[in-house]
């Protein structure tokens, strides 16, 4: 997934202000669900009442990125649990990894506000994606 670095993403030094990456990660997850997994993220939230809150986030900032550059951000599944998912999102420009972020998310009922098992259709889509990435 491509992410253009915009003026609003940068600090006075002209590089991406680090918290902006976490906002980008959230957008990458939404796009990953919709485009790579074939699952409508908005429908999952609004119709199915299934949330995917981030319970842990980390990021290694390896090389600064500047306004006008375009990051390619890819998702790798690191662990698929009963109700949790750990992914890695790397941001690259060309062959250079600029940042590497890890997210742990938990499938949650938006009505009961508690964890629920990952639904079978979502698990199947994630497993198929993971298998394709590892092939």
From TrEMBL:
Which InterPro entries does the UniProt record give? HotDog_dom_sf
Q: Print the keywords alphabetically.
A: Plasmid
Spell out the CDD domains in the cross-references.
Answer: 4HBT
Q: Name one Pfam family in it.
A: 4HBT_2
Mind telling me what this protein is named? Answer: Acyl-CoA thioesterase
**What is the protein's species of origin?**
Azospirillum thermophilum
């Amino acid at each position: 997934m491509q992410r253009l670095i915009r003026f609003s993403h940068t600090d006075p030094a002209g590089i991406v202000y680090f918290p902006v990456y976490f906002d980008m990660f959230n957008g990458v997850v939404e796009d990953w669900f919709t485009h790579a997994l074939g699952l409508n993220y908005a429908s999952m939230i609004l119709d199915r009442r299934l949330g995917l809150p981030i319970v842990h986030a980390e990021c290694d900032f390896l090389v600064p990125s500047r306004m006008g550059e375009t990051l390619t951000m890819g998702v790798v599944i690191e662990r698929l649990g009963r109700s949790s998912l750990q992914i890695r999102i790397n941001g690259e420009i060309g062959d250079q990894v600029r940042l590497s972020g890890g997210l742990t998310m938990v499938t949650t009922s938006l009505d009961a506000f508690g964890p629920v098992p990952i639904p079978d259709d979502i698990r199947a889509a994630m497993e198929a994606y993971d298998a394709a990435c590892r092939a």
